[in-house]
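Lay summary. Proteins are chains of building blocks that fold into shapes, and those shapes determine what they do. In this project we predict the shape from the chain. Here is one chain we studied, written as its sequence of building blocks.
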Amino acid sequence: MRIPSIRSLMLALVVLAMSAASFAQIGISINFAPPALPVYEQPPVPAEGYIWTPGYWAYGDDDYYWVPGTWVMAPQVGFLWTPGYWGWGNGGYAFNEGYWGPHVGFYGGINYGYGYGGEGYEGGRWENGNFAYNRSVNNVNVTNIHNTYNTTVINNTTINRVSYNGGNGGTNARPRQEEEAAMHEKHIAPVAVQTEHAQAARNNPEQRASVNHGKPAIAATPKPGAFSDHAAVPAKEAGAPYKPAVDHAAAQPSAKSEAPRAENNVPRPSNPAHAQDIQPHARLAPPNTGNPKQDQKYQQQQDKLYAQQQQDHQKLQQKQEQDHQRLAQQNANQARTQQIEQKHQQQTQQMEQKHSQQQQKLQTRIPQPPQDHRIAEVRH
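And here is the predicted shape, written in a compact code that computers can read:
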């Protein structure tokens, strides 16, 4: 029996650590769980080539808000959607962003329905460059959509509406081998219409959990951003009795905090070795100066920087993962391995420094509310 060398064991550990990392985690930690997934009907497929992206709870402005499920045109033939999910870790809940890729990766074991039962996707498949829809789980009008099939999906697990992985009451799913492999394939971040769709949900007060108590007014739309479309549907009921947080100020960041949202009480390592060791910087707190045009201009600058930093982070993480895979395949010696690790540390720290400087520069541009120059009345 061949005894593995220490070098081989070290490389194996590096690869395992690499595969355990999620695609991209949003840099915000909340210490109370998102509400249960609401119950809603799926709007019909609007046209060929659209793929269902399930709704989810996002967080912003000290409240969870519902981003409606919607049909999205696949950005590339052969690509499928891996939904995002909330996961517990390091004392809080963090959101792992969804992505497009050739295979469906891990999404926390969350049963989003309509083909996303917690593992993989059974709502459709690509056939000769065309997407075929499974009629058993999708709302398909066969008069308009002709590329279909009918395969019954059997769910052997108890259906629940839990919306997060780990923590108290969350799912206990762990990535399968094929899901681990999917994490390291070519990915595409959410496309522009998805980002705009989520922003529209954030700007709609009725989507906030504190207002709708887990039963959003708009649960799903036929296309991204089509909140007023006649085919948009409200939630039929909340997935579970709504339990508001005892203290919303316990979430990081708090509404009273003057610190930028980029930190969110999530410590950033001073000497990160790899891109996977740090979370991408989050958006700064949106301004509220009373001047909508000025606030919107700043918000657009912030969204542009956020998207670019997310892309930088994902590209570097993927590049470093590819380096690790090559080291393992080549059975590289210790000197070569150490050289690559030093290079990775330098790359990661340069990116972190660049992103921090960009955040600080942007923060100096935050519009300030007009000063009240009125003289207060002095009472004796």
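What the prediction tells us: The CA atoms of residues 122 and 153 lie 7 Å apart.
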